Amino acid sequence: MFTPDQIGKILLGIGGIIALVGVVFLLGDRIGLGRLPGDIIIRRENLTIYFPITTMIIISIILTLIFSLFRR
Fold first, then answer.
1. Helices of type H across 2-52
2. 8 Å CB contact between 34 and 28
């Protein structure tokens, strides 16, 4: 199983990732995430549908790079 030292490192890593995601959400509007070319917004009278395709691709690439650094 895991030793207390390993559990502590895992919890710190998870906490760091959660903090990073929180910062991205706070600063996302300022840096333009959610309003990129390729993000699809469909507006009707009583309905708004939002597909943030480009934003999700960029976030996926960033998370892939971060996780690949931790994996080494």
1. 4-31
2. yes
CA-CA distance, 72 to 49, in Å (whole number)?
Answer: 39
Q: For residue 21, how many other CB atoms are within 10 A of its CB?
A: 12
Domain ranges of the chain: 36-72
pLDDT in tens, 8-53: 999 999 999 899 888 877 887 787 777 888 889 999 999 999 998 9
Beta-bridge partners for 22:
none
Rounded to a whole number of angstroms, the distance between the first and last alpha carbons of the chain is 21
Residues 36, 28: Cα–Cα separation, whole Å? 11
Q: Which residue has the tokens 């309003």?
A: 35
What does pTM read for this prediction?
A: 0.58
Using an 8 Å Cβ cutoff, are 43 and 52 in contact? no
